Amino acid sequence: xxxxxxxxxxxxxxxxxxxxxxxxxxxxxxxxxxxxxxxxxxxxxxxxxxxxxxxxxxxxxxxxxxxxxxxxxxxxxxxxxxxxxxxxxxxxxxxxxxxxxxxxxxxxxxxxxxxxxxxxxxxxxxxxxxxxxxxxxxxxxxxxxxxxxxxxxxxxxxxxxxxxxxxxxxxxxxxxxxxxxxxxxxxxxxxxxxxxxxxxxxxxxxxxxxxxxxxxxxxxxxxxxxxxxxxxxxxxxxxxxxxxxxxxxxxxxxxxxxxxxxxxxxxxxxxxxxxxxxxxxxxxxxxxxxxxxxxxxxxxxxxxxxxxxxxxxxxxxxxxxxxxxxxxxxxxxxxxxxxxxxxxxxxxxxxxxxxxxxxxxxxxxxxxxxxxxxxxxxxxxxxxxxxxxxxxxxxxxxxxxxxxxxxxxxxxxxxxxxxxxxxxxxxxxxxxxxxxxxxxxxxxxxxxxxxxxx
Length: 454
Fold this sequence. Notes:
The protein is an alpha+beta fold. The protein folds into two domains: 37-126, Sandwich (Immunoglobulin-like); 135-450, Purple Acid Phosphatase, chain A, domain 2. The protein has helices at residues 4-32, 86-89, 153-160, 179-190, 196-201, 210-213, 225-235, 285-297, 326-338, and strands at 37-47, 50-57, 63-68, 77-78, 92-97, 105-112, 115-116, 123-126, 135-140, 164-168, 204-207, 251-255, 258-262, 303-306, 344-348, 354-360, 368-373, 392-398, 403-409, 416-422, 433-436. The strands form four sheets. A seven-stranded mixed beta sheet has the order 12-13-14-15-17-16-18, with helices on one face. A six-stranded mixed beta sheet has the order 11-10-9-19-20-21, with no helix packed on it. Strands 3, 4, 6, 7 and 8 form a five-stranded antiparallel beta sheet that branches. The relative contact order is 0.11.
């Protein structure tokens, strides 16, 4: 039987070994940095069986997402580990939880080098419905961190519990020839404390406008557009970015029986001041062909065209909107009419004013196009609308922080959508406009009956 002296020496030896191991591990950690997330997590695109999670790390570490349908993580699974680098990813990664069930809430947490991130908790995210279903999609533009680093509107939006959120341009104010400064602005914006819980639970999709494209009011001549696109791809978890032969930020996305077409209104755009006519483009030939094909193929009752730039003619000739390229805009509207593509809705941002306009194409044999404009999310509002006159105003413009809200019910007959803006606290700005799919068919005039300005 070992005596006490032998037992004490054994204990002391084990203690010394553990101490040396911990010291070596600590020294190794000190050499490589402490594994942790710097920004995120952020939920990206979701499908009925997939949830994508974006995160940016403090260094070149292995990262995974552990997830379960149970809050205690019983029966959890892990995504495949990835190891983002500074050179190719700026330490950002998109992890995909796959093999999931539709319309199901999952609990998830971030693992770095196989361990739970000590500074993050557990979060929830939900898969998309497996078919037509009632849902809410919110959107907005123009959050300027320098102007408002607090951004209380995210708390108002969180109360509404939208199923999706769309960033539709000027998501940062980069205004630089240095792509690394664009990345720095993304890091600031995605770190806003009021925003972070919203990012971690609500799917986020994005396109850009001029300030995140790199330069104010810019176009295809932007000398840093390729660098800006590379940064954009690193900081958003969209389902795709352009086409192999046509780079850009445009993509299409389906959710709950509604089709969304997110447009890139900068990469191929001719300068605003160029004379308008058949040779001038806003989207470029490749993107326009993609859009037309997608619209004619879609059987969804509602097809939402998402544009960073406003659709109306209000800014006039040469204005920084579709007003500078009315020939192409009108040709697209004629195409929709001639191909009997029903159910097209328009949303946009940029103007620093909440607007609800309509373009009455029923007067040309089609149907009326509604353009719901949300801006700004966190920025000084503008009164410039008072000197702009779109084709038709559906509601009096709102001079305050706002977000757009679309409430779809494609499962009823006929399918319906309710459109409105909400203020900084999530309260409705106007009496909502409710449309049925029947309102958005050739030969139907509806806008003027919905335009009593409250």
